Amino acid sequence: MKIKKICCIGAGYVGGPTMAVIAQKCPDVYVTVVDINETRIKAWNDEDLNNLPVYEPGLDKVVAEARGRNLRFCTNVEGAIQEADMIFISVNTPTKTYGEGKGQAADLKWIELCARQIAAAAESDKIVVEKSTLPVRTAEAIRDILENTGNGTKFQILSNPEFLAEGTAIEDLMAPDRVLIGGDTSTEEGLEAMEALVEIYNSWVPREKILTTNVWSSELSKLTANAFLAQRVSSINALSELCENTEANINEVSRAIGTDSRIGNKFLKASVGFGGSCFQKDILNLVYICRTYGLKDVADYWEQVIKMNDHQKGRFAKNIIKSLYNTVSGKKIAFLGWAFKKDTNDTRESAAIYVADHLLSEDAKITVFDPKVREEQMYADIDYLNTRNKVDNRKLMKSEPCPYEACKGAHAIAVLTEWDEFVDYDWQKIYDNMLKPAQVFDGRSILDKEKLKDIGFRVYTIGTA
Ligand SMILES: NC(=O)C1=CN([C@@H]2O[C@H](COP(=O)(O)OP(=O)(O)OC[C@H]3O[C@@H](n4cnc5c(N)ncnc54)[C@H](O)[C@@H]3O)[C@@H](O)[C@H]2O)C=CC1
Ligand SMILES: O=C(O)[C@H]1O[C@H](OP(=O)(O)OP(=O)(O)OC[C@H]2O[C@@H](n3ccc(=O)[nH]c3=O)[C@H](O)[C@@H]2O)[C@H](O)[C@@H](O)[C@@H]1O
């Protein structure tokens, strides 16, 4: 079966870049990305590629090549479903904020809505691909909705989770470690549908890197991959606290264990805590699924990864307060970085938000500089926590477009994101304009500690005494 037209529901961080790369690599496949969010679609169609709604290095070039050729962004969900042979569901699946499973389960209302939209609009057979990260066995619910349309159309449901990381999305999509495709391996039609998707990816991904499994393994592998990655960060962060008490150095420990090929050297960077839209949400979801199957010990095991992460963010904030003589009331603290990692404008679950919230509750005055995050986003993030009212948040926190201004007159600087440019700042100039003793809290271990100490800074780096 040769796919001619693809529709992707959801033009977010995953749907946009993923479909742009598919369109670029498969010029004979027509790709339409739809979204109910008109502003987002408008931004995807903006002539000025600097205004794309997602910032990812290299994305602008891919969009420039494919958009208008075989890549289209629009809000006509129904029309795009009708004409497509293959429909990707790439909508958000956040943690539920209400009802049963509140605070843990994935909220699948947008997924169900997509299934219903597909069921209502489809007039011919379709392959439906789960691209969103979903609890294991979600395909069962999607199938149930699709198979009860009553108009005789047939659907094959595949799971094709996305493993891209933000900031390196284009690189990851161009040369993935693997592509995972789960489907109904017990029927001809199921295998045929899987092969159709394999063919799309095989336009640029070597066949041996495209793994096929049953649909449940594929769904669960995505949650498992994120749980393992986050667990590594929590493990190294747990040991960073021990290092601070023992004069061991976490960077040396990471290097020492990372050279063991069984352990590997990636994801061993101690930090102020992991953020991002998925690690926490996916682990909470895993914990919830385990609990619903009565697997209490398994659930508790994975929950500890989140608890450790919360502890790490909290202790970073507490350490700032302690070092500033146990009070930050009225003191200016400069934040370098607000995004959850470098090279992205995404702030979802960023450690910076929680550290800021902790310090604001102690009446600190925070000035934030981030090269890619806008002030409205920072306020939206801090307001969302509902710890204090919006007026107070704006009184206590502001954003500053110049890093040197942000640091001027500050008692302390906290590095919350590992943006490369922070390393090359004129730290002497920053020091000269700060209150003394000038303190730096490096939550990402990116700055040259010895150099800063020579200038006169007091420096705290995660995981070093
Ligand atoms: N952000 C990331 O780096 C990664 C995310 N994922 C998963 O991919 C999924 C999507 O994540 P993001 O792209 O980050 O989310 P997002 O929130 O950036 O984008 C989702 C989009 O879907 C749209 N949408 C929701 N319901 C719709 C409907 N019925 N019809 C049309 N549009 C609709 C929303 O308006 C939104 O623009 C999630 O399940 C996430 O866990 C997986 C790998 C990486
Ligand atoms: O499902 C998802 O959304 C994605 O989640 C992560 O990608 P992402 O969250 O974009 O970014 P990561 O590079 O994984 O970083 C996550 C967080 O962990 C932190 N981190 C990462 C690595 C490390 O060694 N130390 C560390 O503190 C980062 O600073 C960041 O806050 C996974 O890496 C992707 O494979 C997955 O597709």
Structure description:
The protein is built from 18 helices and 14 strands. The chain is α/β, with parallel strands linked by helices and 465 residues long. It has 2 domains: 5-205, Rossmann fold, CATH 3.40.50; 307-461, Rossmann fold. A 6-stranded parallel sheet has the order 3-2-1-4-5-6, with helices on both faces. The mean pLDDT is 97. The structure holds 1,4-dihydronicotinamide adenine dinucleotide and uridine-5'-diphosphate-glucuronic acid. The site of 1,4-dihydronicotinamide adenine dinucleotide has 28 residues, from helix 5.
Question: What would you say the CATH architecture of the largest domain is?
Answer: 3-Layer(aba) Sandwich
Distance between the termini: 61 Å
If you average the pLDDT, what whole number results? 97
* SSE-based structural type: alpha/beta
Shape: globular
Pathway: Nucleotide-sugar biosynthesis; UDP-alpha-D-glucuronate biosynthesis; UDP-alpha-D-glucuronate from UDP-alpha-D-glucose: step 1/1
Domain UDP-glucose/GDP-mannose dehydrogenase C-terminal: 334-449
EC number: 1.1.1.22
Protein name: UDP-glucose 6-dehydrogenase
Which descriptors apply to this entry?
Rossmann fold; 465 residues; binds 1,4-dihydronicotinamide adenine dinucleotide; globular; six-stranded parallel beta sheet; single chain; binds uridine-5'-diphosphate-glucuronic acid; 2 domains; alpha/beta
Give the topology, please.
Blueprint: E1 5-9, H1 15-25, E2 30-34, H2 38-44, H3 59-66, E3 71-74, H4 77-83, E4 86-89, H5 109-121, E5 126-130, H6 138-146, E6 155-159, H7 169-174, E7 179-183, H8 188-201, E8 210-214, H9 215-246, H10 250-258, H11 279-292, H12 296-323, E9 332-336, H13 351-360, E10 365-369, H14 375-384, H15 390-396, E11 397-399, H16 403-407, E12 412-415, H17 427-432, E13 439-442, H18 449-455, E14 458-461
Parallel strand pairs: 1-2, 1-4, 2-3, 4-5, 5-6, 7-8, 9-10, 9-12, 10-11, 12-13, 13-14
Helix pairs in contact: 1-3, 4-5, 5-6, 9-11, 9-12, 11-12, 12-13
Bound molecules: 1,4-dihydronicotinamide adenine dinucleotide and uridine-5'-diphosphate-glucuronic acid (UGA).
